[in-house]
Write a structure and sequence with these properties.
Strand content: under 5%
Largest sheet: none
Radius of gyration: 34 Å
Number of helices: 4
Helix content: over 70%
Structural class: mainly alpha
Shape: rod-shaped
Order of helices and strands: HHHH
Amino acid sequence: MDSLINLAGCTSRNDAIEKAVDFYFGYITSQLNQDYLCGAFGSKMEGLVNNLATRISKGNFRTAVEMNMHTRMLAATFHIDKCGYEKLRVKSIHDVKTTNGSIDILEAVNESESEI
């Protein structure tokens, strides 16, 4: 105990015991606060992620509806037959796979001009 008094810079044993008790209660309280904050932070983050996922899903749905409308308008305007559609689909799948979804509009125009 005497060495702890000198180490902690206390003037008496009672002072050393009081500091030890204060330290212990501070430690216990900080653990409780940490557990509470981790739980509260986790719940908040879960809510934010769920909200973001909902917004992305709704945006994807709206985009799919618009894309469906555009596809139907193009098909009606250009009167594409089933054989032409299948060839276009095979070419599109190949292009998307090889370019990882990054299609250049000028490249597509140049290809369509070269086919004419």
